[in-house]
Specification:
The protein is of the alpha+beta class. The protein contains four helices and six strands, in the order H-H-H-H-E-E-E-E-E-E.
Amino acid sequence: MKQLLFIAIFFTLPNFLLAQEISEKQKSFVNKFVKAVDANNVRKVYTFLDTKYRNEQRRFLGGDKEQLVNELFSGNEMGGNAFVVIPVTEVVRIEIAEIEENEDGSFVYIFRVRDTEHDILAPLTLQKKGRRFGFVGAVG
């Protein structure tokens, strides 16, 4: 029985340690993304998007990277029902409001985003493909 317990611990411990390492990388990635948004840096924010998502949306938008980035943050205005899109170039504050883990291993980050007139909650999904993280927003 002790041998079975030892084997179980031996094989699950590396997975736990790997999850901790990935978690720190994920935090670092998300913090850098928030800094890029805070700086209103459209080019830098673009690099934090999932590659497949970027390519699909660029084709849909006729190659317009700036439009893709500036339409990332959308949602219902807090305290109201108006649907609002806040362009990255107009963000005055961004913070993480909530994080939810999906069954497929991706995470939904709900950002509280503000410009000078609006305050919204905007969800983005963080996916990991291989060693690379990337955010996915609305499609279409």
